[in-house]
Design goal:
This protein is an all-alpha fold. It folds into two domains: about 110 residues, no CATH class; about 120 residues, Alpha Horseshoe (Serine Threonine Protein Phosphatase 5, Tetratricopeptide repeat). The protein has ten helices and no strands. Helix 2 packs antiparallel against helix 3 and helix 7 packs antiparallel against helix 8. The protein is elongated and about 110 Å long. The two termini are about 45 Å apart. About 15% of the residues are buried.
Amino acid sequence: MIWLGALLLAVVALVPLALTLRPTIGARGRKEAALALHRAQLVEIDRDLADGRIASSEHTGARLEVERRLLGAAGVPDRPSGRAARGPILAALAMLPLAAALLYLTGGSPTMPAMPLKSRIVAAEQNVREEAEMIARLRAVIGTLDPRSEKAREGYVLLGGAEARLGNMEGAAAAWKVALAARFEPTLAAEAAEATTEANGSVTEEAAGLFRRALAAAPQDAPWRTMAERRLADRPAGGTARQ
């Protein structure tokens, strides 16, 4: 099953992190590291005196200060290297794949068979064919109706939605504009303006006019108001919108 493969991949992905928590052979504790640092400083101070980079008085003062720090570090008990802290971290890493699997088993469907890519492509092509057939039927029905009737208007609204789902924004805009000619509706006007904009790649004068009419007639809390205002704001005063 694919979820078992996902669990295995999660375990493999966590292995490098777990390896970094392994105890390092010969790793120094904090006390040992501090002592080594101060001893190196003493050697450096003596070298500076021998090379003439510091005076004898400066050498004496610096050496006394480092020796004081060295004695202080030697009297401090060394702390554990942190091995005890690795236990909870390793336990948490081991629990992560198990917790992910339990979450999937709770909210997922592990027994559902996978849908091959070919089947998904066939299903998508079938949906496209069904949409095209519905558009053809709608056009046939609308052709028998009075263009000024409410039924014809509803048909054009549905036709525009079907064209938009197929990505034919030019056809969607044309159908919605016919519906708007029968009766104006702010939301439909905004949709027609947006479809016109997408079809042309810019906010045309016609689309800008539809956006303005829609904004003037729509309530202040219309969900598409911000989008329409932004479209108009992005459009230069004397020309088409910026690409």
